[in-house]
Each structure stands twice: as C-alpha cells, then as structure tokens.
C-alpha cells in the first residue's frame, strides 16, 4: 500500500483544484502566454481579433522571389542529377548459359522441337487430363522468390520466370531442361512479364518503375518505358496487327496504353479507385477485364476510356489474379476470401454461383490459378505452398499436395500435356509435376 506524508498531501492539494465531486483539474503554474492587443474593430486593416500573435512569438522570414528562383534552380539540378544517376546504374545485359544457342541446322532455341512424344504444333488439346502426382524436375537459379512464370505462346516449350532478385530467366521445358538465358536490367524485383503473340519479344515490369521490352532470342533490351508510377501488371494486345501496343496497370489506379514505336502513352483508362492488379483480354481481344484493390471488376472496350461494365457487390473481396478458360467462356478470379469465383464472359459477366472453388488458403497473396488444356480441371497454388486441383464440373477437390516450402504464387498447365504442371514459389524454385 502506497503511503503519503502530510507535507506531500498538502502540496498535492495545492496543485489540484476541485472542479466537482468526480473531477479534479490541475492548476496551471507560471504566467500565461500573452497575446498582442487585438486593436480597434473599426480599423479593418489593423484589427487582428482572435487570430492575433503572441508577444513572444518569433517569425521565420520567407525567402524573397529572387531567392526562390535560385533555390528552384539548385533543387532542380540536384533532382536531375539524381534521376540521371538512377538511369546510369540501370544497364541492361544478358548472360547466355549454353555453349551454342543454335542446333546443327542453325535454328535457335525458339524453334519448336518435333522430336518429342507430344506434338507441340497442334492446336488441339489432349482429349482428357489428369491431376499431377509426382515431382519430375526442379529448376534452380533464382536467389530470391519467383514472382511469375509465363509459357512460350502456343507450344509451351520454353518457360520465362520473373524473380524477386531483379532477374528474368528463360528455361527449357523439354529435353535437358537447361537454363538458357538470364536477362539483367531491373534495379528492383520484377513484378510481371508477358510474351508477344509470337514469343520473339517479351515485356517486363518492375518495382523500379520501368517497363522494358526484350528480344527473347538475343537478350537485347529493345526499349524502356516509364511514367514514374509503379507498374503492377503488363499485357501485350494479343492481336497480330496491334503488337506495337501494350497495357500497363499501375499503383496510381490507372491503366496506360503505350505505343512501342513512339514510346508515348496513347490512352489512359482512369476509373478504378485502387491499384490495378490484373488485365485480361476477352471476346476476341475486342474487350479487356481489369481487377483492382477497390474490390471491383471492370470491363473496357479497347481504346474507349470509359468502362462498359462495372461489377462490385458488398460481399466481394479483392481479386488479384484472373485466368481465362481455354474455351474463353469463363473468368476464374482468385478472391481474397479463399475462393475462386467464376464469371461468364458471354452472359454479361454474371457470377456463376454453382462454380465456387474452395479448400485452399490464399488470403493476402496473389496466387494465380490455371485450367487444364481441355478445361476439365482447375489448379491453384496457395499461401502454404500447396497445389490444389479441382474438378470443373463438380467443384470437388481431386488432389492436394505440398509443392513449395513457401508461398506457391503461380502454376501453369502445359498446353499439350495431360498432367504436366509447372509451379513457382517464394522459395526461389520452379517445379515440374506430372
């Protein structure tokens, strides 16, 4: 029990003033700070009123207009020097990891092989697909986590990986499964990558606020673009006659359309209320769908900066990953409430309530899902590093197994295989499952 002396109690009583039975107000010690005289209210220019200054107030002098000009010049030079220094440090280079990138006929690694058990040139998917069961191969090369993987268009004989170590790597899927080339040119982690329709070029966007165009075969950086905003996703226009245009979804809530030939922004789509996470082309590439941190889904006509469809319900969560089905009729959206929601492309983007895939844990992570080539199975990674496979018709879980030591952020089904899936995770590894 705390004890007080009579002298201490008296001093404390002098310091405290009783306002009521339940309140005690501390008495202010020392002199109160005085304000200047408010002046005569009749004097409009001299009257200061309740806004008058304190007598002991010290003013900080403002620079004169001449001094402001000098300061602006000095700070402007420092800012330009800083930007130039940042540009100078980002030098693009490439590393070839194979002795000879061409075969005995002089064909580069972009050439689609024909000496395999599976025909990589056909457009027909396998008649029936099955869930993968065992690990076949592991690609190791990234020193940090892998953020995204992309298959070579149509054939899928090459896989491109974007790493958090700011490097991009190209790997063989068939044969010796070698590391072919490393692309170095970003100062920070690479967020997203995208092949052109023929695969000869690809785009990469990074947290260093640059979007870069690369030659897949030579490794040369063909162009660099920036709008001083952090890009979250990048997509080529899939049409062959529009390969000089690409879209970038940024953290400033806007979608920008860049022209590769001029290097300028030719269109802005500014309707979202949060950072743009995904861009997906639908309906014969005449329209594209975007999702954002504002928990909405918007549909746009190409080159028209007003959304034609806006989907936002009170129960909706953010959807940071979207995948188009092989028949282009459905959009599988990874929702932050640990479900995969399905929207119909041809029925005015209405939610299909019968197709609701659950059982995995993805809250807080942009884990992308994918379809089997004929559309009978859906596969997705999760925050625990597991791969989950569902049956499309019944939404029943077919299999679930541990794939990575950390978050399994992306998975892709090989377009001509019945059960081969490539997955990547934040443990820096890329796995091939069969």
TrEMBL record:
Principal localisation: nucleus
Compartment(s) of residence: Nucleus
Entries under InterPro entries matching the protein: PRPF17, WD40/YVTN_repeat-like_dom_sf, WD40_PAC1, WD40_repeat_CS, WD40_repeat_dom_sf, WD40_rpt
Chain intervals for the UniProt region annotation (Disordered): 28-49
GO biological process entries: mRNA splicing, via spliceosome
Extent of the WD repeats: 139-181, 183-224, 269-301, 368-400, 401-434
GO MF terms, alphabetically ordered: mRNA binding
Repeat listed as a keyword: yes
Coiled-coil region: none
Keywords: mRNA processing, mRNA splicing, Nucleus, Repeat, Spliceosome, WD repeat
Gene Ontology CC, one term: catalytic step 2 spliceosome
SUPFAM superfamilies per the UniProt record, alphabetical: WD40 repeat-like
Entry superkingdom: Eukaryota
UniProt entry tagged with the keyword Transmembrane helix: no
Official protein name in the record: Pre-mRNA-processing factor 17
